[in-house]
Design brief:
With about 270 residues, the protein is an alpha/beta fold. It has eleven helices and eight strands. It has an eight-stranded mixed β-sheet with strand order 1-2-4-3-5-6-7-8, sandwiched between helices. Helix 3 links the parallel strand 5 and strand 6. The longest helix is centred in the first third of the chain and has 14 residues.
């Protein structure tokens, strides 16, 4: 896999799809590796050149000492775009989920190459945002006594999915656990990224972003409550908002076919 240097930090990334197709950058959430986008990548690579970095602290990228900032991770993403061959005259569509949506907002502010934004289960932060409930945070970061690595991952992921997801798609859950064991952040990276999420506040400038934006949010999101998606769509001047009824934080995995179709439709309308 290719890698690039971002202010002394090695950032690894994957590139899939035709080299002459429109560029699409996918940015994942806190602690998650680029595997999180496997389903969307498979669906979109016929028509897009898909670029997937591992955020600093995650997967094959380096884990420098924390805390990190969203601005640093946006700069990492820009370095990946540079290294992948996009110069100042090129344009890139950006999809971000959760923390990745925060990075996408900051990148859109700082980098003129961003053509569109697709923002999933994310927030602009600030005083009007609804924080993650404390009990959910405790669940996500806890390590149950006696659990092995696989059981710990399953435990931590529960608030991010629907109550019946484990029973409904046991094979997919097993695949996700395998992917998380191989490609997610370790404890140091997770804590450093969590600090970036906790400090993120785009409220003073997010309304200046003029890119066409698709904002999607699950109505049953326990990690970043639904009101955050509504708030983000309200402050973005060129946003379309779509509520995913009953959708969890990871609705784009649970309802991947529907979401992939909608994201493709939005992107193809702006190429």
């Amino acid at each position: 896999m290719p890698s690039t240097d971002s202010d002394g930090v090695r950032i690894d990334y994957a590139v899939d799809g035709p080299p002459d197709a429109p560029a699409l950058l996918l940015l994942e959430g806190l602690g998650y590796g680029r595997w999180m986008w496997d389903w969307l990548t498979d669906d979109l690579t016929p028509g897009f050149r898909v670029i997937r970095p591992d955020n600093r602290g995650t997967g094959d990228s380096e884990t420098p000492g924390g805390p990190y900032t969203i601005g640093e991770m946006a700069a990492d993403a820009a370095a990946v775009l540079d290294d992948s061959g996009l110069d100042g005259g090129d344009r890139v569509h950006v999809v971000g989920a959760s923390m990745g949506g925060m990075i996408a907002q900051r990148l859109a502010r700082d980098d003129d190459r961003v053509a569109t934004l697709t923002l999933l289960c994310t927030t602009p932060g600030g005083g009007d945002a609804v924080p993650t409930p404390e009990d959910v945070l405790d669940h996500i970061f806890s390590v149950p006594e006696g659990d092995d690595e696989r059981e710990t991952i399953r435990h931590r992921m529960k608030p991010a999915v629907s109550d019946d997801f484990y029973d409904r798609e046991p094979d997919l859950v097993a695949d996700i656990v395998d992917a998380r064991l191989a490609g997610d952040a370790g404890p140091e990276g997770r804590e450093a990224q969590a600090a970036a999420v906790g400090a993120f506040d785009a409220s003073e400038w997010v309304g200046e972003l003029r890119q066409p934006a698709l904002v999607m949010h699950g109505t049953a999101d326990r990690v970043l409550p639904f009101e955050n998606g509504e708030l983000l769509a309200e402050v973005l001047p060129n946003a379309t908002f779509e509520a995913v009824e009953g959708g969890s934080h990871l609705f784009f995995i649970e309802e991947r076919e529907r979401v992939n179709d909608r994201v493709r439709e939005f992107l193809e309308g702006h190429v």
